[in-house]
Amino acid sequence: MSTIRKKLIAGNWKMNKTAADGAALAQEILAQVGRETAVDVVLCPPFTALESVGRALEGQAVKLGAQNMNPQKSGAYTGEISAEMLRTLYVSHVILGHSERRTYFGDTDAFVNQKVLAALANQLKPILCVGETLAEREGGRTLEVVRTQTQAALAGVTAEQITTVIIAYEPVWAIGTGKVASTAQAQEVHAYTRSLLHDLYGAALAQKVRLLYGGSMKPSNAPELLAQPDIDGGLIGGAALEAKSFVELVKAALVAG
Ligand code: 13P
């Protein structure tokens, strides 16, 4: 448990929900935890639902996040979305480096780094995703992969900026598979990530950065994960698509405090 770091529960809706369905889900969530300030809650709908969900969130404590962003300011980048475009829709957070983007859309560590720097330059809070594949875990390379991805993504991020970065540890083998990392496996990587931050930014700042766990997190396994000393919240996929399970996760974070 941590008193310095407020818990954060973020819902990554991935390629789900139309603008109308997204707004309806947001309303349902707001009805139950809309005024909750003891836990930070972020909803990350697809780009096409940002406006409608943003409108639903107006005046509430729940924040709006995007799932990706192009680091360029503007120009001939067909199909891409800039930081400024997100800002004008009242987006405050942006998921970067998700393993699905790394796997299916070729996002490299260097590109993720450019995105992180561009997000920070535009006052967007990055939710930086890192994590190993099953082959990498079985090959004993988990910490090395997490180190490489984390260090590369944070290159050029200043001490002033680091506390606005959120890092999500998402073991690729646990995403959408129903196979959750054990609390010991998750805590080990989180503690390691914090030690990397300690080396890069010093002890005080490392203690302030929030580290989320992601990968088949649901109401049944959340309490144990959220009780770990270095797990400061969750990045939720499947269980974020229904108000009931998502609200239960927010409540689990409240209890874990
Ligand atoms: P699941 O919760 O569906 O495993 O997805 C996790 C995830 O990828 C969140 O970004």
Residue-averaged pLDDT = 97
Just name the CATH architecture: Alpha-Beta Barrel
Low-confidence stretches: none
Largest sheet: 8 strands, parallel, barrel
For the largest beta sheet, what order do the strands appear in spatially?
Answer: 1-2-3-4-5-6-7-8
Order of helices and strands: EHEHEHEHHEHHHEHHEHEH
CATH C-level class is Alpha Beta
> Roughly how much helix do the residues carry, as a percent range?
40-55%
Shape verdict = globular
The third-level CATH topology is TIM Barrel
Could you characterize what this model shows?
With 257 residues, this protein is of the alpha/beta class. It has one domain: Alpha-Beta Barrel (TIM Barrel). 43% of the residues lie in helices and 14% in strands. The chain has 12 helices and 8 strands. Helix 1 links the parallel strand 1 and strand 2. The longest helix has 19 residues. The radius of gyration is 17 Å and the shape is globular. 1,3-dihydroxyacetonephosphate binds next to strand 8. The site of 1,3-dihydroxyacetonephosphate (13P) has 14 residues, from strand 8.
Could you name the key traits of this structure?
12 helices; 257 residues; binds 1,3-dihydroxyacetonephosphate; TIM Barrel; alpha/beta
List the helices and strands and how they pair.
Elements: E1 8-12, H1 19-33, E2 40-44, H2 50-57, E3 63-66, H3 83-87, E4 93-96, H4 99-104, H5 109-121, E5 125-130, H6 134-138, H7 142-153, H8 159-162, E6 166-169, H9 183-201, H10 203-206, E7 210-214, H11 222-226, E8 233-236, H12 243-256
Parallel strand pairs: 1-2, 1-8, 2-3, 3-4, 4-5, 5-6, 6-7, 7-8
Helix pairs in contact: 1-2, 1-12, 5-7, 7-9
The structure holds 1,3-dihydroxyacetonephosphate (13P).
